[in-house]
Amino acid sequence: MNWGKKLIIGMILFMGFIMSMSVYMFNLPADDYDHQYYEKGLNYNRDYDRERLVIADNAQPLITQNQTAIGVAFKEPAVGVIKFVNPLGKNKDLTFPVNTGASNAINIPADKLSAGRWDVKIEWSSNAKNYLYQKGLFVNGK
Known about the structure:
This protein is an alpha+beta fold. It has one domain: Immunoglobulins (Immunoglobulin-like), CATH 2.60.40. The chain contains three helices and seven strands. The chain has a four-stranded antiparallel β-sheet. Keywords: Membrane, Transmembrane, Transmembrane helix. The chain crosses the membrane at residues 7-26.
Protein backbone atom coordinates (compact mmCIF):
# COMPACT_ATOMS: atom_id res chain seq x y z
CA MET A 1 0.00 0.00 0.00
CA ASN A 2 1.52 3.34 -1.00
CA TRP A 3 1.32 6.68 0.81
CA GLY A 4 -1.62 7.92 -1.30
CA LYS A 5 -3.90 5.11 -0.16
CA LYS A 6 -2.87 5.66 3.47
CA LEU A 7 -3.65 9.35 3.15
CA ILE A 8 -7.10 8.64 1.68
CA ILE A 9 -7.86 6.05 4.41
CA GLY A 10 -6.75 8.54 7.09
CA MET A 11 -8.99 11.27 5.64
CA ILE A 12 -11.97 8.90 5.46
CA LEU A 13 -11.45 7.83 9.09
CA PHE A 14 -11.18 11.47 10.20
CA MET A 15 -14.33 12.44 8.29
CA GLY A 16 -16.15 9.47 9.84
CA PHE A 17 -15.07 10.61 13.29
CA ILE A 18 -16.30 14.18 12.65
CA MET A 19 -19.63 12.90 11.30
CA SER A 20 -20.18 10.60 14.29
CA MET A 21 -19.43 13.46 16.72
CA SER A 22 -21.90 15.69 14.84
CA VAL A 23 -24.65 13.07 15.09
CA TYR A 24 -23.88 12.55 18.79
CA MET A 25 -24.01 16.31 19.48
CA PHE A 26 -27.39 16.77 17.79
CA ASN A 27 -28.87 13.83 19.73
CA LEU A 28 -28.01 15.28 23.17
CA PRO A 29 -30.93 16.72 25.17
CA ALA A 30 -31.20 20.51 25.18
CA ASP A 31 -31.62 20.76 28.97
CA ASP A 32 -28.24 22.38 29.51
CA TYR A 33 -29.43 25.98 29.69
CA ASP A 34 -31.85 27.95 31.82
CA HIS A 35 -35.12 28.68 30.02
CA GLN A 36 -35.82 31.55 32.44
CA TYR A 37 -32.47 33.28 31.85
CA TYR A 38 -33.81 36.70 30.83
CA GLU A 39 -36.56 36.79 33.45
CA LYS A 40 -34.01 35.98 36.14
CA GLY A 41 -31.77 38.75 34.83
CA LEU A 42 -34.57 41.27 35.25
CA ASN A 43 -35.16 40.12 38.85
CA TYR A 44 -31.47 40.01 39.79
CA ASN A 45 -31.55 43.15 41.98
CA ARG A 46 -34.56 41.88 43.93
CA ASP A 47 -32.84 38.53 44.55
CA TYR A 48 -29.56 40.23 45.46
CA ASP A 49 -31.34 42.45 48.01
CA ARG A 50 -33.03 39.42 49.59
CA GLU A 51 -29.69 37.58 49.83
CA ARG A 52 -28.03 40.62 51.42
CA LEU A 53 -30.91 40.87 53.92
CA VAL A 54 -30.17 37.30 55.09
CA ILE A 55 -26.61 38.39 55.93
CA ALA A 56 -27.65 41.72 57.47
CA ASP A 57 -30.27 40.10 59.72
CA ASN A 58 -28.05 37.07 60.47
CA ALA A 59 -30.93 34.85 59.33
CA GLN A 60 -28.99 32.06 57.60
CA PRO A 61 -30.89 28.80 58.01
CA LEU A 62 -28.96 25.84 59.38
CA ILE A 63 -29.04 22.80 57.08
CA THR A 64 -28.24 19.43 58.67
CA GLN A 65 -28.56 15.90 57.39
CA ASN A 66 -28.58 12.39 58.76
CA GLN A 67 -29.58 8.99 57.39
CA THR A 68 -33.33 9.65 57.57
CA ALA A 69 -33.87 13.37 57.01
CA ILE A 70 -32.47 16.70 55.92
CA GLY A 71 -33.28 19.34 58.49
CA VAL A 72 -33.56 23.07 57.92
CA ALA A 73 -33.69 25.25 61.03
CA PHE A 74 -34.67 28.91 60.78
CA LYS A 75 -34.04 31.69 63.33
CA GLU A 76 -37.71 32.78 63.26
CA PRO A 77 -40.96 31.12 62.14
CA ALA A 78 -40.91 30.94 58.34
CA VAL A 79 -43.28 30.46 55.41
CA GLY A 80 -41.98 29.80 51.90
CA VAL A 81 -40.46 27.12 49.67
CA ILE A 82 -37.28 25.05 49.47
CA LYS A 83 -36.09 24.09 46.00
CA PHE A 84 -33.57 21.31 45.47
CA VAL A 85 -32.02 21.73 42.02
CA ASN A 86 -30.09 18.79 40.60
CA PRO A 87 -27.37 19.75 38.11
CA LEU A 88 -27.99 16.51 36.17
CA GLY A 89 -31.35 17.62 34.84
CA LYS A 90 -34.44 19.67 35.45
CA ASN A 91 -36.61 16.55 35.71
CA LYS A 92 -34.92 15.67 39.03
CA ASP A 93 -35.63 19.05 40.70
CA LEU A 94 -37.81 18.98 43.82
CA THR A 95 -39.79 21.68 45.63
CA PHE A 96 -41.04 21.47 49.22
CA PRO A 97 -43.34 23.95 50.97
CA VAL A 98 -42.14 25.53 54.22
CA ASN A 99 -44.42 26.46 57.11
CA THR A 100 -42.46 26.00 60.32
CA GLY A 101 -44.91 27.36 62.83
CA ALA A 102 -43.45 27.70 66.33
CA SER A 103 -40.85 24.96 65.83
CA ASN A 104 -38.77 27.09 63.38
CA ALA A 105 -37.62 23.89 61.63
CA ILE A 106 -38.62 21.56 58.84
CA ASN A 107 -37.49 18.00 58.07
CA ILE A 108 -37.37 16.61 54.55
CA PRO A 109 -37.20 12.81 54.17
CA ALA A 110 -33.76 11.87 52.84
CA ASP A 111 -35.16 9.10 50.65
CA LYS A 112 -36.77 11.71 48.36
CA LEU A 113 -33.33 12.96 47.30
CA SER A 114 -30.81 10.85 45.43
CA ALA A 115 -27.21 10.87 46.57
CA GLY A 116 -25.00 13.52 45.02
CA ARG A 117 -24.72 17.25 44.59
CA TRP A 118 -27.78 19.50 44.93
CA ASP A 119 -28.20 23.27 44.80
CA VAL A 120 -30.56 24.36 47.58
CA LYS A 121 -32.56 27.55 47.11
CA ILE A 122 -34.66 28.63 50.09
CA GLU A 123 -37.15 31.48 49.69
CA TRP A 124 -39.07 32.44 52.82
CA SER A 125 -40.75 35.23 54.73
CA SER A 126 -40.24 35.99 58.41
CA ASN A 127 -41.41 39.05 60.31
CA ALA A 128 -42.74 40.67 57.11
CA LYS A 129 -39.31 40.39 55.43
CA ASN A 130 -38.54 38.31 52.36
CA TYR A 131 -35.33 36.28 52.30
CA LEU A 132 -33.40 34.22 49.77
CA TYR A 133 -30.65 31.75 50.68
CA GLN A 134 -28.72 29.56 48.25
CA LYS A 135 -26.22 26.87 49.07
CA GLY A 136 -24.63 23.81 47.51
CA LEU A 137 -25.32 20.57 49.34
CA PHE A 138 -23.90 17.08 48.96
CA VAL A 139 -26.45 14.44 49.94
CA ASN A 140 -24.80 11.31 51.31
CA GLY A 141 -25.83 7.96 49.90
CA LYS A 142 -27.21 5.16 52.02
